[in-house]
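Lab notebook page, bench 4
Experiment: in silico fold of construct C2
Operator: M.H.
Input chain length: 326 residues
Purpose: comparison with the prior construct
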Amino acid sequence: MSKNKVSIHNLSVDQISNLSRLLALALIIVLGVIISDSFLSVENLTNILTNASVLIIIGVGQTIAIVTNGPDLSSGSILTICAVLVAILMKSFGIPYPIAILAGLSLGALIGVVNGVMISKVGIPSFVSTYGLMWAVFGFAYVLLHGYVLYDFNSSFRFIGNGSLFGFIPMPIVIMALVVGLGIFVMTKTTYGRRFYAVGTNSVCAKMSGINVDKTVILAFVSSGFLSALAGIVLIARINAVQSDIGSNYLLSVLATVYMGGASTEGGEGTIQGTIIGALIITIVYNCMNLLAVPSEWREAVIGLLIILTILIDSFAKKRAEKTII
């Protein structure tokens, strides 16, 4: 369903683009091997995947939103408010963690409904509506915590972030794998996935073909909100603490992840697989900088330059492919 399917030497433009991202990932891995003997250790690779898990979980929902209608700028704030809600229910009210988790996930989906309705029914552009909601939700999170940090959660709850399956597969990776598998299935094998791409490509044509555009947009942002909430739950279970700005650093990272993965600012393009590659690129670069003890003030600058470079390479590959049509 993605656009610009032009063959070049038996490869489509999308395949050329994917290969360029894989090449970038491979070069970064080679760089990691060069700078540190411990880069390929099981411990370090597991750490990379575990750190990437939260970003990928949010990225799957963000991919669906961007493919359908545009970026969900409230994803970081949804992560925060849902994590705060779960923590307060467990610590202040003694609510069992499964019920607290269900409440957090429900809140994430509900905020997604609000986003979807504002965009589809009211007609507010996604950039504007989700940006405004982002600040409102961050404000609520601060009010709820009053600037305090909640920590030391129930050990059963912390298993979600620190436990392991079969004794060696960290639970964040397990949860991420389940989300990725379901996301790929939905986007490639179901009518819902085809509707997301169709609405993002041309909402007018999608509506004329019988697709309920409003319902599709709402469902896309519900997916983004739900997965942002899930990511927040995994995150606080892992670090065993929550504060009112815990998700503030994830907004730019997740947007970079999705756009580096091949999503288009115009909608209708993007894949879960590409988002995974984008998340791994960012996480591995951070890991390499940690191994090199790069000062923290340089890290954001390096990531920003990397994002620009990756997008430029991707754009160059697409233009070269489109010029040579077989």
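Observations: Residues 296-323 form the longest helix (28 residues). The mean pLDDT is 88.
Next step: discuss at group meeting.
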